[in-house]
Amino acid sequence: MSEEIEQAAGGRRARGGGGAARRAERTAVRVEFAKYIERNIPNLEILNEEALQLIEANAETVLEQIGVNFVENPAALERWRAVGADVQGERVRFPRGLARELCKTAPASFVQHARNPDRNVTIGGKNLVLAPVYGPPFVRDLEGGRRYATIADFRNFVKLGQMSKYLHHSGGTVCEPTDVAVNKRHLDMLHAHMTLSDKPYMGSVTERSRCVDSIEMSKILFGEKFVDENTVMTSLVNINSPLTFDPIMMDALEVYAAANQACIVSPFIVGGAMAPVTVAGTLTQVLAEVMVAVAYSQIIRKGAPVIFGAFVTSIDMNSGAPTFGTPEAAQITLGAGQLARRMGLPFRSAGSFCGSKLPDAQAAYETANTLNIGLLSGVNFMLHACGWLEGGLVSSYEKYVMDADQLGVLHRLAAGIDMSANGQAMEALREVGPGGHFLGCSHTQANFKDAFWKTDLFDYKPFETWDEEGARDTATLASVRVKKMLGEYQAPAIDPGINEALSEYVARKKAAVPDAFL
Amino acid sequence: MSEEIEQAAGGRRARGGGGAARRAERTAVRVEFAKYIERNIPNLEILNEEALQLIEANAETVLEQIGVNFVENPAALERWRAVGADVQGERVRFPRGLARELCKTAPASFVQHARNPDRNVTIGGKNLVLAPVYGPPFVRDLEGGRRYATIADFRNFVKLGQMSKYLHHSGGTVCEPTDVAVNKRHLDMLHAHMTLSDKPYMGSVTERSRCVDSIEMSKILFGEKFVDENTVMTSLVNINSPLTFDPIMMDALEVYAAANQACIVSPFIVGGAMAPVTVAGTLTQVLAEVMVAVAYSQIIRKGAPVIFGAFVTSIDMNSGAPTFGTPEAAQITLGAGQLARRMGLPFRSAGSFCGSKLPDAQAAYETANTLNIGLLSGVNFMLHACGWLEGGLVSSYEKYVMDADQLGVLHRLAAGIDMSANGQAMEALREVGPGGHFLGCSHTQANFKDAFWKTDLFDYKPFETWDEEGARDTATLASVRVKKMLGEYQAPAIDPGINEALSEYVARKKAAVPDAFL
């Protein structure tokens, strides 16, 4: 059993915690948290060696003959020219093997530090780190329905993340705080992650100055020297598929890579629209795009941590809507995992994806399909692991806690099968014998507390009890759980000086420029 | 793409179809059906060689030192004595290797014939045959709520099965027709499967005479000689875990094996109650039990078709309720699949399992967890593949069509990745290039119709459209689909003489004895 649940007081061993921090610690609620998943089961290798080599060769052909565009980015074009690429206008073509060779300096795994060192995560290898939904402009809950997200919602989701046992990472844009000016949002978002959670977080990517703010605020939180020497952010750099690298995203990659901060470089694919309609064609394009982005990060700084990302959905050919939890997306995720492992890179994919408007059965089928395949694809960093609704337009309060509960299933499944003498249970079989009952036997008594994964949400009661209690469905039970978690939430302890410095930084930056909503 | 969807008129090539059958054929609705799954992807091998050998050695130790009980079955005890087992009272112990050796004559795969030969299924190897829920005394639908099942419900579920594209098998007790006398139910159930569906079906197992009736009615349907020479039923023989073989179930195994009809021999395990609380301990017991049952079938008739079954749930240690879609059940299913393959036997496990009272998110998470793991466990026969609700107490109309839709995901995922030139899509990548769009390219146009699995149920519409249409959840959409399918149902053609003979057999047997409800 590699699952390690630790009973920990919020903010224990908080970096720089002084007297106030210690006092806060003594009164803090005890919050359970699980260590990131260290897989003790194999991955599902859907492609054979021949298929993998074919896709790799095709990706080299794409890079050699078709190439990619680095848009409005003369500095990047110059960098590519300097390492031997063929640059014509904004088009960059690569001699076979060049991009892959450049990728070799990227680390196979890296530690992302949290302000609470117990929450540090190692991303890569057999590990799986789970982070919440990213990006939705709307939120939905049972009482309030669907509405634009606000900074109050944002803070609620960060609190839910801090309270969620199986979530290892506080994430980034858990929803878009649409009531805050676009040019100041990142400050409030970072401030929330830094103060309301002690789990690792993501930086802003929407403009170069916001990346710089992310680093500056991290230096206040961790200390300047610590940030210079360690990775404290993993940020999301989407690739504008097909084969296009836009200047804003490349800005983010440049700033973060130069600072030795991690990026996920991630083709954003709706199959049939941004990539071919076939699985093998999509994998070829994904591999070509990721190789270029990873290579570029290594040109900026050799050894900068970077993650092979793949955000993949299929498309409903009738309506053009993206679709989730589908078999084609599963195949791409499985194949991309193999390609990432062959490059020796950490892999990001999957999540609690669904197209449904409600946290209903459709949402759950689609999500469970994706979560299970994500685990078996060898994903190392799973963004959107809980809370995703309506194709990513909505952060759902209820679905957040429903999905977060299911993440416990992944932990236990990944732990593998205990083959110790206790696991083999031969003495139980001897004690009980034919026709007996195991409930009372000594082996069961010794093991029952931890024998089975336990839901914190689902209903297992007899029909009559459940009926008397109001015949509640999962969404209704989840709504109750959301309120309970937010009610019990206590902020992890933080050094008051750091807290004040962060607030001061945010206030100063906000005051310096007028609000902009574009 | 190994998925083969055939547009077929109901009852086409119905065995013994005369003029009436041909007339019926011309007016029949065209019903789509998918061939059983032939996997083109690997299984997930969760246990390594050392662990497998350990479990196999432990199972031999269980059989050698603990043994099993054959209850109230002197003939069975005599048979065991005759092949060299150690029989003391009702306890049978086995020299190491005896049971496994006897199992070797069981076939690795077999054909179960349907009255429409297009619906024949081959059970074993890389195949996966999907059959509906089995056994619930209750039904539930959106309007009627939860209520005792009737023969009218039973017939509805058989009709839904016939109309479900991704269901290869009509199943058995799709619900318990509680309005029919217990001693006559099997006649009405078999009659429904034989006349309302042309897919393969299961026989009755609840008493020796009912097994005989199943064979007699099959002889009317297929012809006596055909049934003597072919397998036309696969029936469910549960093992009374731990390590107990009750006389009614052994009666069924004896009757069917002697007639060369297939049985699933299936330990019925609620982990922690009928087996140890650990995964490895449960696998040991399952293997020991299955080896005995398979060996016994081969003592009855060498070469009789038999399936390695494993029905496994975990338990909620607070309430004692069985739980579904859990990681421990997944691990057992994966491990049992490996053990079955090492014995060269077809494997039955998994299904649309859930504990939820409603076809809601809990139901769907639990079901999707189980369906995905079932596919990756190498299951060859999946009973309960759709319609299961509330721990198997309820056959749900809505969940039936929800699950049946998801079975299409399994078909497509199992087909593997197309690595043909068309699959590689290099010309599409060349045509579109950086920054382009694939929707209009010629490769997309040539492939879009079959590129992606399509739901018949889920909602992909824009939020506003969905909202205007009533903001329906999955269960509501499913309710609409149930009515549509039952409305469009037409019975597959059947020879009127056979139809009459079946009705006459049922009427005669019903008249021969008074109703009994015990």
Structural description of this entry:
The first copy, chain A, is globular and about 75 Å long. Chain A contains 19 helices and 21 strands. Residues 1-17 of chain A have low confidence and may be disordered. In chain A, α6 runs parallel beside α7 (208-222), α6 (185-196) packs antiparallel against α19 (496-512) and α11 runs parallel beside α12. The longest helix of chain A is centred in the middle third of the chain and has 22 residues, at 279-300. Chain A is of the alpha/beta class and 518 residues long. In chain A, strands 12, 14, 15, 16, 17 and 18 form a 6-stranded mixed β-sheet that branches. A 4-stranded mixed β-sheet of chain A has the order 5-6-4-13. A 4-stranded mixed β-sheet of chain A has the order 11-10-21-20. The first copy, chain A, has helices at 19-27, 49-66, 74-82, 98-103, 151-163, 185-196, 208-222, 224-229, 247-258, 279-300, 327-343, 361-376, 397-414, 421-424, 426-432, 442-451, 463-468, 474-488, 496-512; strands at 5-9, 30-34, 37-38, 68-70, 86-88, 91-93, 109-112, 121-124, 127-130, 138-141, 145-148, 234-239, 244-245, 262-270, 306-309, 311-315, 322-323, 347-348, 381-382, 388-389, 394-396.
